[in-house]
Write a structure and sequence with these properties.
Rossmann fold, 7-stranded mixed beta sheet
């Protein structure tokens, strides 16, 4: 009897050496402002893990510029690394709306937006993100949305943003592998992992978007909004 061939799983497991190689040669040119921001954020201790990775930051800049985005929104700004990367991809006159609940963290972001010369492109609104999204003026329509905030609220952010996205606009959701806590055989116990697992399954079937789950960073789900 013929033995059935096992499918080949084509991927390269990352380690510190390979990740450092990616950052050195695949995450854009060295940037003193972003490096300084990473160092200041690292001094925050365990909270620093919320910062977007260097590879993701370079990806955000390239993605924003490649689609010609003029209006973008970020849900979860923290100390401002990802917002600088997005703003740099916007053309002159482009706008980025940042939503975050922390004045302490976003005060750091404001300083670095000015250092990076992108503060004129960015508007910050403080408060719970769901409430801020519900209160958005009708004029706001987005080409790009980046979601990196409370994981149990991801689905709410997604549903509130989707009607405000232009056709072919992109929604990028971070941490969609939840540090490897998804994909196992047993029940998922961590609330963040349960939330992103439910959303991954929903987005795989959602006919309003075309999406792909990328292994960059802690997993990023990229959704293209289909024509309305």
């Amino acid at each position: 009897m013929k033995t059935r061939a096992r499918p080949i799983l084509k991927y390269t497991p990352l380690n510190d050496r390979l990740f450092n190689y990616i950052c050195a040669w695949g995450a854009g040119r060295r940037d003193a402002t972003l490096e300084s921001l990473r160092a200041e954020t690292a001094a925050l201790g365990s909270d620093a893990q919320m910062q977007t990775g260097q590879d993701q930051g370079a990806f955000l800049t390239l993605l924003t510029a490649a689609i010609g985005a003029r209006a973008a929104i970020e849900v979860g700004t923290f100390t401002g690394y990802s917002s600088i990367c997005i703003a740099r991809g916007l053309p002159p006159g482009g706008r980025l709306l940042c939503l975050d609940a922390s004045r302490e963290w976003t005060d750091i972001a404001r300083r670095y937006w000015a250092r990076a010369g992108v503060d004129g492109k960015i508007e910050l609104r403080l408060g719970p993100a769901i409430e801020s999204l519900k209160k958005l003026e009708p004029k706001w329509r987005f080409d790009l949305a980046y979601i990196d905030a409370s994981k149990p609220e991801y689905d709410n952010y997604y549903e509130l943003l989707l009607p405000r996205m232009r056709a072919n606009g992109l929604i990028l959701l971070d941490n969609m592998l939840s540090r490897g806590r998804v994909g196992g055989k047993g029940p998922i116990r961590h609330p963040n992992a349960r939330a992103v697992d439910r959303l991954n399954r929903k987005l795989a079937r959602d006919k309003r978007v075309e999406s792909v789950l990328l292994s960059i960073g802690d997993g990023a789900r990229l959704c293209r909004v289909l024509g309305k």
